[in-house]
Amino acid sequence: MTRLAIRYGFLALLAGLLIFFSVFADGFFGPRSAVFIFQSVAITGILALGVTCTLVVGGFDLSIGSVATSALMLSAYAMVVTGLSAVTAVALCLVMGAVVGLVNGLLIVKFKVPDLLATLGMMFLLIGAQRIPTEGRSISTGMTLPDGSTAEGTFAPAFLWLGRHRFDLILENLIPMPVVVFVAAGLLIWVFLTFTRHGRMMYAIGSNERAAALAGANVNRYKVAAYMISGVLASVGGILLAGRLGRGDIASGNNLLLDSVAAALIGFAVLGAAKPNAFGTAIGALFVGILLQGLTMMNAPYYTQDFVKGAVLVVALVFTFALSNAVKTRG
Amino acid sequence: MNPACDIVGVKKSFGATHVLRDISLSLPAGKVTVLMGANGAGKSTLVKVLCGVHHADAGTVTLGGRPYRPEGPSDAIAQGVVTVHQSIADGVVADLDVASNLLLDRLADPASGLFVRRKAMRAEAARVAALMGLDLDVTAPVAGLGLADRQMIAIARAMARDPKLLILDEPTSSLSAKEAERLFALIRRLRETGVAILYISHRLSDIRAVGDRIVSMRDGQVSGVFETAPLDYEGAVTAMLGHAMTDVNLSGAARGAEVLTLDGLRLRPGAPAITMAAHAGEIVAITGLVGAGKTRTAEILFGLCKSAGGEIRLEGRPYRPEDAADAIRQGVHLCPKDRADNAVIPAFDLTGNMTLPFLKRFSRLSFLRAGHQRRRTADLIGDLGIVCRSERDDIAALSGGNQQKVIVARWLLEPCRLLVLDEPFQGVDIQARRDIGRRIRETAKGRATLVFVSELDEALEIADRILVLHDHAITGEHAGGTADTAAIIAQVSGQVSEQGAPDKQDQKEDLSA
After folding, report:
1. What does the pLDDT read at residue A325?
2. A67 CA to chain B: closest CA distance, Å?
3. Which one of A128, A311, B84, B404 is separated from B303 by 20 to 30 angstroms, measured CA to CA?
């Protein structure tokens, strides 16, 4: 009984929520509403998939939110201020994400800085660094630059397409690009972690690092790779955010870190995995999205949102740790 | 003799494993009782029961005439049982000065006030130090002191609590001979204050220096008490290792070509050179006490650390593994000791655990072939007689012996040139030990097998040839089956060596070099 509750409890809760909101919230049930929920969690979800990879190797990446906002500012700066093309801007952002991940990984495996501290330091560093070129202001066409000139460039249409394009699916203009990227990244990470030997080794490292090393795994290389995946996914999130906003907004993305970490941790509870997993992370992100959308449609005030997320996280953690431990001790 | 501490009929089990079967032991005041026992004999569990970490399942302990049943470690200390643990780092705070370290417990006491009175504290610390005969500047930071000084500070701090029973867990394990001598002087002084001392060590030099009596433990029971001078060290080692021959069929070993050659290998700088060979189809057991260099040899062979000199050859070619992955690639497998720390992946099922090092063989373009993996695992479950429901069981659901079988099976999954097993019978019951030994012998053909064990029984059960390691040197070689157990025990304990009379002091100096 407890086993069933652990395995399917969270999914049952999700189904219950869906039914509840469909009945009581007008306009909740329907493709447009569903897409809206997906869109609201897509970028958070992409970041959360990155955190999942670092959690799998027993690490943690606190720098994802700041990597995403750095990518946002970098792409804006590249196109609006220096007038580079969309392709160059995207490439720059991806390289930036990979390099940040590499540095995080090296700090952790070579310099033995504890993961939380290394990525916390990186988070501060990036939050600061992204403000320097524009003296702390947001980037948009026509802004005055520190040297007195005016920014003449614009966001390339191809770049905006990444954030705003909607594909047709049954209905016209239904699925936004970020949702497609989220679903694709989710599938990719899920397949990688679950079905490949590299993914399996990463789980082994997270479970018993020394045993994995003695089984011949190059632990350091796997760890660095996990942080690089995390950095790249975070920069993808930042690119999509920039494409959607169409400006280098210095204040956006404040909630990205906490929301994505919450999604990854909620994912522990899905299907009773009790460990980081890509499917759970995606469900975790959706769960929060559905709950917030439903409550908003039932006129819950916006300032209760963080409270609701926190409550969901705590319930999920109880599912994961208390209940599954109870099963283990009973044999 | 008035016993300071009386232990009567203490039992302790973890699940189905009986770690302490029935321990009765009295520890007289003003005497140093040396406790000896091989890995898994239950020494550390007994210490943990005494210092309040574990509760005994049965039996009574009396301390100073009153029943003693500590709630936890701090209660044990309050009642007068103080333990100085093996790793010195646990005993001192390196960032503080000597005075703060000596009085650390008083600093932690909430009744001692909010502010530290530096001057009064130093005076008090100097008094404690003088009492213990420590000649130290109490204002010096501990970080700048040697290991022996740190160890003595830890002991002095323990003594400041005025204990009835002081437990010292291998206190000399990281000290040089000269440093150890200072520690012995302190222990002799403490003995005169009337405290009962339980001293855990295998070292002959320690026992000669401070031991008043020896208690040997084996399989969770007291297997011998020696208290007439001169102490019968060899008898104690015999009681600890045991050598009742168990009937195991050792026939059918055809010795092939030389696979592994150690040519003048030095385990540590200054240690004697080791030269030996292992042949295809042959199982060589290397036995010796804890700290004799068994694990170090295994680690060198698996590329986990570098030797201090000499050459290793594998099938005649120089062999210098970069790391574990390189060793595996070159056909050297290591089944490490301490499975919980070094081998078991608790998050994985049996299949995941068993196939871990060889996932490449079970995957195509990195995609795992789960069916293939599970079939191979199921085969090995049958081969080793692993008791489980299926190959999808969580490894944590298995008993210790079956977990160990899974770990051994992991390294039998692929053929190799050299299989090294470090304490493969650690913490397993007799049936699992038989099953593992049988399977190792069945598969021995075509590879050389090295088995590192500290229990003599285990070596006799499995080996075609037994080598004795003592203080990082090989001190004896015996054919399996017909081995002269008395001679092996003498060599294990370092009393006789092939080179002639043992020179214990010299070897210890080498160690500290």
Report:
1. 64
2. 29
3. B404
